[in-house]
Amino acid sequence: MSVQYDLAGQKKAYESWAPFYDKVYVKFLADGQRKAAAAAAACGPDILEVGVGTGLVLRYYPPHARVVGVDLSTHMLAKAREKVVSEGLRQVRGLVCMDACNLGLPDASFDAVTVPFVITLVPDPEGALDEMRRVLRPGGEIIVASKMGAEGGLRMKLETALAPLVKKVGWSTDFKVSRLRAWAATTPDMAVVDVQPIFPAPFFQLIRIKRAG
Ligand SMILES: C[S@@+](CC[C@H](N)C(=O)[O-])C[C@H]1O[C@@H](n2cnc3c(N)ncnc32)[C@H](O)[C@@H]1O
């Protein structure tokens, strides 16, 4: 299965999700979305959200922030644009169609990059993380919130077995925190500085990866 095929699959999955995504996820993901936005705002005002989707996280960034959101799906971005207008979200400076692995943004231009409920869906997560590091200023953080797979035991076996099925609807079950740790350990100046549970724990987690200042 090629990376290109996976990107097309993601676009198709989220074209279908766009009309009713908010109804399904607005409450379920709110804890992680709030905490991801707060962690990003603590780094500074310039924030990039990768995989901004319908913009459910945008309301949680403070008014003084300057947020740019990118997403692969034009259908999800259209919903985000509606929210910016209807909720008067002046902290949002731009919403652009872009692949996480090919960010058309300058080096070292953001204090924080948030990735809420996205990294597990990207066909080349390490490539996406490399791009996020490139656009991050020294001292900044990549903040990942997602469902993280178990590192062993029966849950890991179940999640591995279910992974090919759930991928078809744009979900993931088997991506693990250890994959983020391995990326940080082999990438200059990057370190995992915090892993904390978010609702519903222990399935979902928030991971902060800091670039040395
Ligand atoms: C589960 S939604 C999360 C949306 C939002 N961050 C939230 O918390 O509600 C995943 C989003 O990631 C986007 N996505 C998937 N793969 C992507 C990629 N390679 N580059 C950019 N966005 C991607 C999808 O289009 C979708 O809008």
From TrEMBL:
A single GO molecular function term of this UniProt record: phosphatidyl-N-methylethanolamine N-methyltransferase activity
Keywords: Methyltransferase, Transferase
S-adenosyl-L-methionine is among the record's keywords: no
Gene3D superfamilies in the record: Vaccinia Virus protein VP39
CDD domains, A to Z: AdoMet_MTases
SUPFAM superfamilies according to UniProt: S-adenosyl-L-methionine-dependent methyltransferases (SSF53335)
Name of this protein: Phosphatidylethanolamine/phosphatidyl-N-methylethanolamine N-methyltransferase
Enzyme Commission code: 2.1.1.17, 2.1.1.71
GO biological process terms on file: methylation
Domain of life: Bacteria
Source organism (scientific name): Hansschlegelia beijingensis
